[in-house]
Amino acid sequence: MELGFNTPSHKIELYSNRLKEWGYDPLPFYREPFESPYSTPELAKKYPFVLTTGRRVSTYFHTAHRNVPALRDIYPEPVVEINEDTARELGISDGDTVRIETAHGFAVMKAKLTQGIHPRVVAAQHDWPGLANDNRLTDNQACAEGIGSTTLRGLLCNIRREG
């Protein structure tokens, strides 16, 4: 059995010959997200918060078991986390039904207020059906180079109390 990493040198490689062979930058680098207050400042005027989707709940297993009645008794509905101070500024109280909007769509969830999240970030849970489905908020057109994944953790959004 060989020890080490699954790289040609079996070491951590900061410079990747494989990436270079495939036509990508061989060194790690930072790229501003497709949507952000910096890369799309005009969009950020309408959608001033950074949305992260895919927030998991330990009651459920990844994307499974939302229809198990005993688990729905424990965690009955989808929530979106928002900073308490930000929510207060927006007139949102804990448990309010809120509408999360992006340039790509909207979702409806219950607000969960916390001090454990940055004031400009909103964290939506994943894999709820209907209007709470966080896929309604994402963009399937702007995909990560080389791997093709969609942006799930860096979209711009706005949030408001429904009704």
Please characterize this protein's 3D structure.
- By secondary structure, the protein is of the alpha+beta class.
- The protein has a single domain, classed as Barwin-like endoglucanases (Beta Barrel).
- The chain is built from 4 helices and 8 strands.
- Strands 1-5-2-4-3-8 form a 6-stranded mixed barrel. The protein has a two-stranded antiparallel ribbon with strand order 6-7.
- Strand 6 (139-143) and strand 7 (150-151) form a beta hairpin.
- The chain is globular, with a radius of gyration of 19 Å.
Strand content: 25-35%
- Text of the CATH class: Mainly Beta
What's the total count of β strands?
8
Largest sheet: 6 strands, mixed, barrel
Oligomer: single chain
Report low-confidence residues grouped into runs of 5 or more: none
Structural class: alpha+beta
Distance between the termini: 62 Å
Number of domains: 1
| Overall pLDDT score | 87
Please sum up the structure shown.
The chain has 163 residues and is α+β, with helices and mostly antiparallel strands. The protein has one domain (34-161): Beta Barrel (Barwin-like endoglucanases), CATH 2.40.40.
